[in-house]
Amino acid sequence: MTADTGSTGAVSTATIIAWLTVFRDLVTANNAYLTELDSAIGDADHGSNMTRGMDAVVAQVGSVAPESIAELFTSAGMTLVKTVGGASGPLYGTFFLRCGSATPAGATQLDSTAFGTCLRAGLEGVVARGKAQAGDKTMFDAMAPALAAYDQTVGRGASLSAAGVAAAVAAATGRDNTEPLVAKKGRASYLGDRSVGHIDPGSASTTLLFEALARALSDT
Amino acid sequence: MTADTGSTGAVSTATIIAWLTVFRDLVTANNAYLTELDSAIGDADHGSNMTRGMDAVVAQVGSVAPESIAELFTSAGMTLVKTVGGASGPLYGTFFLRCGSATPAGATQLDSTAFGTCLRAGLEGVVARGKAQAGDKTMFDAMAPALAAYDQTVGRGASLSAAGVAAAVAAATGRDNTEPLVAKKGRASYLGDRSVGHIDPGSASTTLLFEALARALSDT
Amino acid sequence: MKKLINDPSSVVRDALIGIAAAHPELRIDHENRIIYRGDTPKKGKVGLISGGGSGHEPLHGGFVGYGMLDAACAGEVFTSPTPDQMLEATKQVDGGAGVLHIVKNYTGDVLNFEMAAELAASETGVAVESVVTNDDVAVQDSLWTAGRRGVGVTVLLEKIVGAAAEAGQDLAQIAALARRINESGRSMGMALTSCTVPAAGKPTFDLPEGEMELGVGIHGEPGRTRVPTGTARDIAAQLVDPILRDLDFVGSPVIVMLNGMGGTPLLELYLMFGEVAAILNRSGVTVARNLVGNYITSLEMTGCSVTVLKTDNDMLKLWDAPVNTAGLRWGA
Amino acid sequence: MKKLINDPSSVVRDALIGIAAAHPELRIDHENRIIYRGDTPKKGKVGLISGGGSGHEPLHGGFVGYGMLDAACAGEVFTSPTPDQMLEATKQVDGGAGVLHIVKNYTGDVLNFEMAAELAASETGVAVESVVTNDDVAVQDSLWTAGRRGVGVTVLLEKIVGAAAEAGQDLAQIAALARRINESGRSMGMALTSCTVPAAGKPTFDLPEGEMELGVGIHGEPGRTRVPTGTARDIAAQLVDPILRDLDFVGSPVIVMLNGMGGTPLLELYLMFGEVAAILNRSGVTVARNLVGNYITSLEMTGCSVTVLKTDNDMLKLWDAPVNTAGLRWGA
Ligand SMILES: Nc1ncnc2c1ncn2[C@@H]1O[C@H](COP(=O)(O)OP(=O)(O)O)[C@@H](O)[C@H]1O
Ligand SMILES: Nc1ncnc2c1ncn2[C@@H]1O[C@H](COP(=O)(O)OP(=O)(O)O)[C@@H](O)[C@H]1O
Ligand SMILES: [Mg+2]
Ligand SMILES: [Mg+2]
Ligand SMILES: [Mg+2]
Ligand SMILES: [Mg+2]
Fold this sequence. Notes:
The complex is a heterotetramer, with 2 copies of chain A and 2 copies of chain C.
Chain A: E1 11-12, H1 13-29, H2 31-41, H3 46-64, H4 69-83, H5 88-101, E2 109-110, H6 112-130, H7 140-155, H8 160-177, H9 201-217
Antiparallel strand pairs in A: 1-2
Helix pairs in contact in A: 1-2, 1-3, 1-4, 1-9, 2-3, 2-9, 3-4, 4-5, 5-6, 6-7, 7-8, 7-9, 8-9
Chain C: H1 11-22, E1 26-29, E2 34-37, E3 47-54, E4 65-66, E5 71-77, H2 83-93, E6 99-104, H3 107-123, E7 128-133, H4 153-166, H5 171-184, E8 185-191, E9 211-214, E10 225-228, H6 232-246, E11 253-260, H7 266-282, E12 286-293, E13 303-310, H8 313-320, E14 323-325, E15 329-330
Parallel strand pairs in C: 3-5, 3-6, 6-7, 11-12
Antiparallel strand pairs in C: 1-2, 2-5, 4-14, 8-9, 8-13, 9-10, 11-13, 14-15
Helix pairs in contact in C: 2-3, 4-5, 4-8, 6-7
The complex binds adenosine-5'-diphosphate (2 copies) and magnesium ion (MG) (4 copies).
């Protein structure tokens, strides 16, 4: 049914750990960049917020060695909620918490469809928390296209690896598309028209989230 | 007894008014310079202090038209004391007040010797108030040489005009000689050795005082 | 960056150690970064908690004490605290009469307090009410945006509802009072220079000589517009006019706060207050009480904000009631 | 230069208008630039006056009121006031028990207060005593120089002798107490950046990234040495060590003030206080009371100073007594 020749593989606890770890590495490497973006239309803390949170997530995961994917997601979500604060803490926290709730308890492997269901639940959590819509110039504008691309790629039977790459590419496009937008949600909305011409910091960190996912899935 | 051919002339109320007015003009023109000097080893207000004070002196003199030299000096001294504040207010104020006390009441003319006596009384007032000694890096270090030069020039029978010029030149030399000194009095003394290499602001304004005097005496 | 700190990542922790040393009358939970009144919980009294990013001191920790807050949760600099901090504070200050959460309207603060309230509802029996302040007229309000920021009114609100709680009002009354205060107050701010977030290491924005940011908040965020600087008189008008256009203050006694952003000398704040008071007088607004000083700051940002709160005799009585905190103290 | 002012030449006048608007409980003589307690003179109470250049707010005007000063004379920015101001204040606050002049040791302040005392002696029957504060250990003292500057101890002294005057002590007792306080206190300051005198229009000195001025006073004057910046912990040691070397504080309860120079955020001041308190603890010094905040400032200069005052039970009682001023208030 598809021309894709790769194995569709499966998401394991190791995949999730890799995802979180690479995301930590990417936000750390991009700490100054994220804060730079947040200086232009926010309060200059998005880089340190994400780095602090993901450092704690990786430390926590390493110290308790969760046994299932749901546990991993829940632990990551709880840790983010407890250590980040700001807008990104509850939003990224809710994302992972909802991913966790949508994962069958005890599962240590997920196929691409089940994993997609988790991610979709995460996105819905972000929307439930933050009420952002497409075009509001938030992390939603990177996350929603990323999931759409993931679903579409999986839908045509492609590998998890291909789906990860597609999601990352779509997130990056979504991030870039935030530049001309007038912010409607979050701190940048106080700037009104002055928010135009700047990339939303959350969309940039979300792009890193999907780049990290692409790397983690490349081993599946 | 002297080779000087100029008239020795006399100091009149008009001379004193000219002195004060030219001094006002000079401190106004050198406001930024005096404050610059005071920034290096003080608190960056000497220019505005002197300008404020001399503006008030000239305004006061203009509004009441004092009838004697003593009245002029006293009025200038009182006005400086009331409008300047800081170290320079009481010191320049006392200078003129003591000049006034040393002037015969009601006199409208003074010869060069009598005028020298006034100036000397002024200097003694500054010392009585401020306790500065030679080399303490204060206005004294311009004023004392200026008076010595005045006395010496008058002593050899030269004109008032020549005495004024000699005083101005000696004041300028005294001012320049403050540069290598360690301040012992006033605000610059808090800097200890760091005061070395800077001209004392008060010695610079005192030099303007004698430049103004030289100009005023050039018409006598 | 020039700051009196040990390390950008330990600023809040280290400052809490100093606060503990300076104020033995307070109780500091260093692990959860919560500043408590020494005598909280007080049986039967509604507990009042607030919190927010650090860098706005004395807000909120400086307003913990008799007649004001029971606890304040400290976040990282300019980053709202987390739900577990607020949950812990909620449990600790409940004296059986419930707890009011005082939240400034920023997405981060709102979301984290919201999660805390959800946790309090599911994990404890504590009755929680939340009030969100949103008094900043610089921001255009709309159902479809994050709305207005909560700024200066928060300070006045914490004082007044603090007195109401001390006087024994119940949670519903206090929440209603808090909402009424928020609806009756408006603020507007400006900055002459930016601040520097320690972890960022450089100023959030550059503001050249001759320009100011009008309509800034308290997070070093750029304002609504960048305009030429002017005299204190001009600037006072640019702050007061939008406030008066937004709400009618004539006919009721008002409390005015002339707040410094942190780096502006008190001399200039008093000078600005003189200009603000003159405009209010001319506009027929009766200034009954005032505060001049640094109350809700943005690190070392220079600039100021004006807050005007419409009151009535009851509110003024609560305002005048004794208060004993590090940042605001009278009658005690 | 970025300041909230109308004109450099009217800063003090305009600020006094704001102070009058903010504090109806004070009486302002705008012509003579004097801030009075509303109820001065108080019959039988020793009158307390101080004054100095403006730019150090809340000092001194912010310390006028019950339990502290009767009047404060405001000079131009960083320029001591004039004898006629002090003379006028002396006449106005005398309640028959004489007047104490509290003078910071700067040539300008000393000379102007000296002339005022001479005028008071010749023109009025008012008994005047003067106390000159000189607590700054940054300056090497000598009979042959202007001596040490008066800085932070002045604040603590004004509070304590204010309470003594309120308690009915006579002029000789109060002058003796004031001198004892001055002898028992030491201060040391530092700056990370300069301030800008409005009339000068630019910073008094340039201080590049990575350097600080150690041993600065409160007039934007350069300090004793320019040294590399360090952590808050290092800087605290550089401030506290010279104080402890200069006077033995072990064995008596001390009052510590961690004072901000005007432009440093309160968050950093508390952080610094934590470091200072830790050093004092380790050195066996007992901190009985403290003040953390902007009390004697240098316009928008960033930096801080530490003041340590050795006390006894009587002094502490006077410290704890009620005070009600714009800048310091408790128990009233
Ligand atoms: N309501 C919202 N829904 C989704 N994302 C949001 C919302 N509000 C803010 N964000 C995201 O959060 C990012 C800012 O995160 P961060 O800087 O860490 O928090 P804060 O704004 O509290 O300082 C924004 O760039 C935006 O992408
Ligand atoms: N004790 C003193 N005797 C003589 N002159 C002094 C003395 N102290 C200070 N001065 C002079 O006063 C000048 C400073 O004047 P000014 O800046 O107006 O006052 P302040 O030092 O109070 O700011 C110094 O440069 C010095 O020449
Ligand atoms: Mg941010
Ligand atoms: Mg000076
Ligand atoms: Mg933030
Ligand atoms: Mg001066």
